[in-house]
Amino acid sequence: MDIADIEELIESNIEDADATVSRPRSYDENHEDDHYAAVVISPAFEGKPLVQQHQLVYDALGDHMTTDIHAMELKTYTPEEYEAREE
Question: Hey, which family's this protein in (predicted)?
Fold first, then answer.
């Protein structure tokens, strides 16, 4: 699955989301390319525990989590949390 497609799925299914997806491992023809990492920033995460934030991302990816994506490392932030992290 293409990184841009993953970003689009997340951004189109989570309110005002900004997603940056990468491959945390080097490419390996033995399916290592199915491993992704994502930083997702959205006001939809406000007041939700980390588990629920991650569930929103998994829900946005739908069946791709069982067919095209083997693993997804997630970092989720509200816009305020992300801004405070950069200071």
Answer: Belongs to the BolA/IbaG family.
Using a CB cutoff of 8 Å and minimum separation of 24, what contacts does 53-62 make?
56/14, 57/10, 57/14, 59/13, 60/9, 60/10, 60/12, 60/13, 60/14, 60/17, 61/6, 61/9, 61/10, 62/9
pLDDT tens sequence across 54-66: 999 999 999 999 8
pTM (predicted TM-score): 0.88
CB 23 within 8 A of CB 33: yes
Domains of the chain with bracketed CATH: 3-86 (3.30.300.90)
Q: How confident is the model at residue 23 (pLDDT cuts 50, 70, 90)?
A: confident
Is the Cβ–Cβ distance between 62 and 9 less than 8 Å? yes
Q: Has residue 46 got a pLDDT over 70?
A: yes
